[in-house]
Design a protein that fits this description.
single chain, 408 residues, mainly alpha, globular
């Protein structure tokens, strides 16, 4: 078993402390959803339509996906540390652009630029895989992505309160201050964990076909994409459902919006504790079943007339729980198919997941109209959850076949 490396906090000559990795992942998650309770007020501020304002989620995720394709090979070539530090610096500039945007077009342009913070999330996972073995990585990634769980749990709550007290820009000022603090922390603590590749950057990009030809990589990547697709559809549609269907104000919407993160936090904790003991494939399968099962129960509850903000958001805890069990393990699996391409795999796998999320977020916003209720969103989320079960069953079948042939 691989021995854990020596880590000294705030010493960049050693690998980064797990606290730094959690905060990096958390900042990336916070930038994605902290302002969502403010979408109705932002729509009024920029004198535009909700569907256009909702693109601040979809285009962010779309650019996020494209960047992840680039980040992996670049970090494999030049190292994790410089790419993360540059990403944080550019994020600060983009955040100021969002705050002072004079119209919705300028805001959306800078919102796209904010997606550069995805370097923090992608490379925090790659750093873990640099440091430890596959099963240990699944556990450690579970703890790292707790930053992605805790932040969405409290982020929209704070975003809604800040909106009511100071206006929608307050959420972006919070992002700027936190980004500056984490940039300082990363500068002090983030030691390099990747050995610089001897291949040229162009050759690094030509390594992608090695991953794309791997059925197991595709299985893990699609499992993560479909399971998380339910959550990304939720990001795109829940603000409309909360404000327009159930008539919630920004602060109350922020409170309810964080419910999935309670489940996600629990799922991450289970991953951190049990993945090395139980095995990643079993953890993923159970996570996908919980995700789809919770959505199936939500559809049944609505069909029997139990339609309220409590039932809608309450069942979303199962979505969070399933994702918390699935994503760390599926990520570890995709990074471990070709360990020498961990950064590339993290970027490509993340691009598949976030790219699909962008499409589902935009689709959720397009499907929800006055009079539709929450039905289109629930069916869309259930369909993606069911697809994740199919994907992980294909991985399990593939691994059994490889073991039978003695090639795994």
């Amino acid at each position: 078993m691989q021995t854990a490396p020596l880590v000294r906090f705030l010493d960049r000559t050693t690998p980064p402390h797990i606290v730094t990795l959690i905060l990096l992942a958390g900042l990336s998650a916070l930038a994605m959803n902290v302002f969502l309770p403010s979408l109705p007020n932002m729509t009024a501020h920029f004198n535009t339509e909700y569907r256009l304002m909702q693109l601040s989620v979809a285009i962010y995720l779309g650019v996020n996906a494209v960047l992840q394709i680039l980040i992996g090979p670049v970090s494999d070539k030049f190292g994790r540390r410089p790419v993360i530090l540059w990403g944080l610096g550019l994020f600060l500039v983009a955040t100021l652009g969002c705050i002072f945007a004079p119209n919705v077009a300028v805001f959306l342009a800078f919102r796209m630029c904010q997606a550069v913070i995805v370097t923090a999330m992608v490379l925090s996972r790659a750093v873990v895989r640099d440091m430890v073995s596959q099963d240990q990585a699944a556990s450690m990634i579970g703890y790292v992505t707790m930053g992605v769980a805790v932040v969405p749990m409290v982020g929209p709550v704070f975003g809604g309160v800040l909106d009511q007290m100071f206006g929608w820009q307050a959420s972006f000022w919070m992002l700027f201050v936190l980004g500056a603090l984490i940039l300082w922390l990363s500068w002090r603590d983030l030691g390099e964990t990747s050995r610089a590749s001897s291949l040229s950057l162009a050759r690094q990009f030509r390594e992608y076909p090695e991953l794309l030809r791997s059925p197991r990589f595709w299985g893990y990547a699609l499992t993560a994409a479909f399971c998380s697709g339910a959550f990304f559809a939720y990001l795109g549609g829940a603000p409309f459902v909360g404000s327009q269907v159930f008539g919630l104000d920004p602060a109350t919407l922020g409170f309810f919006f964080g419910v999935p993160a309670v489940g996600y936090f629990t799922g991450n904790g289970l991953s951190g504790r049990f993945s090395a003991r139980v095995g990643i494939n079993r953890m993923i399968l159970w996570g996908c079943l919980i995700n789809a099962g919770g959505l199936g129960m939500a559809l049944l509850a609505f069909a029997f007339g139990f339609q309220s903000e409590w039932t809608f958001f309450g069942f979303m805890a199962f979505v969070g729980l399933g994702n918390g069990m699935t994503i760390p393990n599926a990520t570890s699996g995709s990074l471990s198919v070709r360990p020498h391409l961990a950064g590339t795999a993290s970027g490509l796998g993340g691009a598949i997941m976030i790219g699909g999320g962008a499409a589902l977020s935009a689709l959720a916003g397009a499907l929800l109209k006055p009079g539709t209720g929450a039905w289109p969103l629930l069916w869309l989320m259930f369909a993606t959850g069911a697809a994740s079960i199919v994907a992980i069953l294909m991985v399990i079948r593939r691994e059994r076949r490889l073991r039978g042939l003695g090639t795994l």
